[in-house]
Write a structure and sequence with these properties.
It is built from 8 helices and 14 strands. With 261 residues, it is α/β, with parallel strands linked by helices. The longest helix is centred in the first third of the chain and has 14 residues.
Length: 261
């Protein structure tokens, strides 16, 4: 493993992972640099791509931390590894196939700071080509399984505007978390492999009484699952979530305000 940490303290630590999609990572960094100007932040890129071109390009990003040649650790361990490298007030987990808009981070910080019990803030995620909603907070059905609310509804629909809304879960594709809370809960659970670790983390925060906030006015664009390894362990991940949260009955106590028939 090769790493370079140029900055180990920041107000916001932004973590992204690269695997076989350097083109996406380049676009993400371009949008972050363009649209964040007022806050002290550092980006850490974790690269599991053994392509030498990717490694060399990442090494040339003088304003970023990087961790290279990590081996096949999986989403949870990659993020946890990067989290340890920087002391920050907030951590933004963001997929490398996302691009952001001006003011997105400022709005997320404003939302999380409204109440002390706010542990994390999610945002509206839209597909860049179809302009349809991919994420607007997560609700749970009566079987206890999470569902993406309003998925594939056109983004121009004005019926669902809500700037500040407590939810039971938001995706970690773009999720701002209080770093002290992420550390308290001992990070993402690596038992999940490239999926469902964010649902599990949301449940652990909600179980302790913390709020997850959804902010409609924070808009980012997402290609979704651009990395080829994303869903290889889907069945195992679902089974683990069911065993841990549904069969124990915990999910029904935690998510009663967002149940959908």
């Amino acid at each position: 493993m090769i790493e370079k940490i140029i900055k180990d303290r920041a107000d916001v630590h932004i973590i992204t992972l690269n695997y076989k999609r350097l083109d996406c990572t380049k676009e993400l960094l371009k949008s972050l640099r363009k649209n964040i100007s007022w806050v002290d932040y550092i980006v850490t890129i974790v690269n599991n791509d053994d392509d030498e071109e990717a490694n060399e390009w990442i090494k040339k990003q003088e304003d970023c931390n990087y961790i290279l040649d990590t081996g096949n650790l999986g989403f949870s361990r990659w993020n946890n590894l990067a989290f340890e490298k920087v002391k920050s007030k907030y951590t933004l987990f963001i997929n490398n196939d996302i691009t952001v808009n001006k003011g997105f981070l400022k709005k997320m910080i404003e939302s999380i700071e409204k109440e002390e019990i706010n542990a994390a803030v999610g945002c509206k995620i839209v597909h860049p080509e179809t302009k349809k909603i991919m994420h607007a907070g997560i609700i749970f059905n009566t079987a206890g399984l999470p569902l993406e609310r309003w998925k594939w509804i056109p983004n121009n629909n004005k019926l669902f505007v809500n700037e500040y809304e407590p939810m039971n879960a938001c995706t970690a594709a773009c999720l701002l978390v209080r770093s002290k809370i992420f550390d308290f809960f001992r990070w993402f659970d690596p038992t999940y492999v490239n999926g469902w670790e964010d649902n599990d983390f949301n449940m652990r925060m909600r179980e302790r009484g913390y709020q997850i906030i959804y902010n409609w006015w924070v808009l980012v664009y997402h290609l979704e699952s651009a990395s080829p390894w994303r869903h290889l362990k889907e069945k195992e991940n679902v089974d683990l979530f069911i065993q841990r949260w549904i069969k124990t009955g915990k999910v029904f106590k935690i998510t009663s305000c967002n149940l959908k028939k």
